[in-house]
């Protein structure tokens, strides 16, 4: 018996009361220039929901891909029910009872719900034909198992993101997994949709399904999970029952330091000049009569429920597409922004909500992505000054602490937090007057969150006007000097950051006009 296996068995005896379904025994995975995992050992108890946490780059996704057969370890082994398994691919993993639902949806949008659920296991009728009645029956059974009511003949591309997430889970459940891996399943879900997913997970647990749950959201983890494993820099830190720890201890173990000093942002200086002012911005049906201002050195947060129109307003400020009516002023001067290039030229930068589809070219390098928006500034007579470009890239990689083997590495291979830093660096390289960040820490670990908050505050203190759009209420409360709340495409209230709490924001975001007026009078 290897030393790594002995460690794993000891951990199981100490930390688990029930037998291990899966044992990770001294697993290592090395990429060129990067040790993603090194000698990781712990056990997964059968019939429980087990959280896997760590900063971006800690090795969570690599470990999950090894367990799901997507990647092979360079060292160590996996034991299922105490027997060693060597997975040759995802199909083999499914045959062994292991399923995975990736954070990035992997659906065919032009196919139906039934076709997507049965993708890869299409039941045949004879030699040539597809048994569509059987396919539809399998799809209905998978949906019924989750108590989900979705028309199996609907095109998946017409479903909401939340519904698509449920279809992904159905795709995994159709194989009757014993172990189901859920990677950031709530990152695009509303509170109500998240609550429904948790009910589904509880039903699966009651049916004997073991789950690995990857998330950066501590309240979720402590609400639904039984045990937790913490990874840091590719190493196993600790595995323990959640009843024996606290969110603060988990965060400290994840990042190796105390993050309790993040605090709230103070009130902005009212004497600072107004950098951005908008009056009556309207683009039906997305938003109407939007008026606000942002001062130099101020961070203004935008809060609201999904569909409130926050992101649409930000895209309007960026000219993608522009508002139909209204006025935009920068440093007191009216400007007409009809497209993104004009916005950039006028000093507006926008970090979009979806960094992978709208903010990055995943097949290009860190260097190419970072310099993309500022190419015109580093060119003369149409030729790029590569020395100047490299200096700019090196400066921002160091300034934002972007973890990458080198600047020529593909940005698609970086962790989510480091990809977000590349997008931020790309726009800062344009020397903007106004910085708009939409969901700045979605899918980002707590350590990277703290770094991004600190960096945004540093930028504000240097005089930048910043707008933060976030669905994470603690985040918008923490980072903002002032919070504007939207509902149904219009601004419905304003709160000073020091006075704001989740109850006040949600009252403005969700209540009717009478309740809104009552709240405003009370404040």
Brief account:
The protein contains 19 helices and 24 strands.
Structural class: alpha/beta
**Main beta sheet:** 6 strands, mixed
**Strand residues, percent:** 25-35%
Distance between the termini: 67 Å
Radius of gyration: 25 Å
Could you give the order of strands across the largest sheet? 6-9-10-3-11-12
In DSSP terms, counting alpha (H) and pi (I) runs of 4 or more, how many helices?
A: 19
Return residue spans where pLDDT drops below 50 for at least 5 consecutive residues. Answer: 1-17, 512-520
Mean pLDDT: 84
Outline type: globular
Q: What is the number of beta strands? A: 24
- Considering DSSP H and I runs of 4 or more, what fraction of the residues is helical? 25-40%
Fold blueprint:
Blueprint: H1 3-15, E1 20-31, E2 34-45, E3 49-53, H2 60-67, E4 75-80, E5 83-85, H3 90-95, E6 98-101, H4 113-117, E7 124-125, E8 129-130, H5 132-145, H6 161-173, E9 179-183, H7 191-206, E10 210-214, H8 218-224, E11 227-232, E12 235-241, H9 247-255, E13 274-283, E14 287-295, E15 299-303, H10 310-317, E16 325-330, E17 333-335, H11 340-345, E18 348-351, H12 355-359, H13 366-371, E19 379-380, E20 383-384, H14 386-399, H15 416-428, E21 434-438, H16 446-461, E22 465-469, H17 473-479, E23 482-487, E24 490-496, H18 502-510, H19 513-522
Parallel strand pairs: 3-10, 3-11, 6-9, 9-10, 15-22, 15-23, 18-21, 21-22
Antiparallel strand pairs: 1-2, 1-4, 4-5, 7-8, 11-12, 13-14, 13-16, 16-17, 19-20, 23-24
Helix pairs in contact: 5-6
């Amino acid at each position: 018996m290897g030393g790594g296996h002995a460690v794993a068995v000891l951990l199981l005896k100490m930390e688990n009361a029930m037998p291990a379904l899966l044992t990770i025994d001294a697993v290592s995975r090395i990429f060129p220039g990067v040790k993603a995992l090194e000698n990781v050992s712990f056990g997964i108890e059968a019939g429980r929901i087990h959280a896997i946490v760590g900063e971006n780059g800690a090795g969570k996704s690599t470990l999950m891909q090894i367990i799901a057969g997507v990647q092979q370890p360079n060292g160590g082994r996996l034991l299922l029910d105490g027997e060693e398994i060597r997975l040759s691919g995802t199909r083999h993993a499914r045959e062994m009872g292991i399923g995975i639902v990736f954070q990035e949806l992997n659906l065919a949008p032009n196919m139906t719900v039934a076709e997507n659920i049965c993708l890869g296991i299409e039941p045949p009728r004879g030699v040539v034909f597809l048994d569509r009645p059987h396919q539809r029956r399998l799809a209905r059974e998978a949906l019924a198992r989750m108590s989900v009511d979705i028309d199996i003949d609907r095109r998946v591309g017409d479903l909401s993101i939340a519904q698509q997430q449920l279809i992904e889970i159905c795709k995994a459940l159709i194989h009757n997994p014993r172990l189901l891996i859920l990677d950031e399943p709530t990152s695009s879900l509303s509170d109500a949709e998240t609550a429904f997913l948790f009910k589904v997970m509880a039903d699966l647990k009651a049916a004997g399904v073991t789950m690995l749950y990857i998330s950066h959201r501590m309240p979720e983890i402590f609400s639904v999970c039984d045990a937790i494993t913490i990874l840091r820099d590719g190493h196993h830190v600790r595995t323990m029952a959640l009843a024996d720890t606290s969110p603060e201890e988990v965060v400290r173990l994840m990042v190796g330091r105390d993050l309790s000093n993040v605090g709230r942002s103070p009130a902005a200086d009212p004497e600072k000049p107004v950098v951005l002012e908008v009056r009556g911005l309207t683009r039906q049906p997305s938003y109407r009569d939007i008026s606000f201002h942002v001062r130099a050195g101020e961070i203004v947060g935008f809060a609201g429920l999904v569909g409130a129109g926050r992101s649409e307003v930000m895209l309007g400020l960026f000219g993608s597409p522009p508002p139909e009516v209204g006025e935009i002023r920068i440093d007191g001067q009216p400007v007409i922004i009809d497209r993104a290039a004009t916005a950039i030229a006028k000093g507006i930068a926008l970090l979009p909500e979806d960094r992978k589809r709208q903010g990055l070219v995943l097949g290009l390098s860190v260097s190419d992505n970072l310099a993309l928006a500022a190419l015109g500034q580093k060119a003369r007579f149409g030729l790029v000054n590569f020395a100047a470009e490299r200096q700019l890239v090196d400066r921002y990689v160091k300034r934002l602490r972007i973890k990458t083997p080198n600047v020529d590495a593909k940005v698609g291979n970086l962790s989510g937090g480091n990809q977000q830093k590349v997008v931020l660096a790309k726009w800062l390289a344009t020397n903007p007057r106004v910085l708009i960040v939409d969901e700045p820490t979605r899918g980002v670990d707590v350590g990277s969150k703290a770094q991004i908050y600190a960096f945004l505050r540093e930028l504000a203190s240097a005089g930048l006007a910043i707008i933060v759009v976030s669905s994470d209420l603690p985040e918008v409360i923490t980072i903002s000097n002032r919070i504007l709340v939207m509902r149904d495409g219009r601004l419905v209230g304003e709160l000073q950051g020091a006075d704001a709490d989740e109850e006040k924001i949600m009252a403005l975001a969700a209540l009717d006009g009478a309740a809104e007026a009552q709240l405003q009078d009370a404040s």
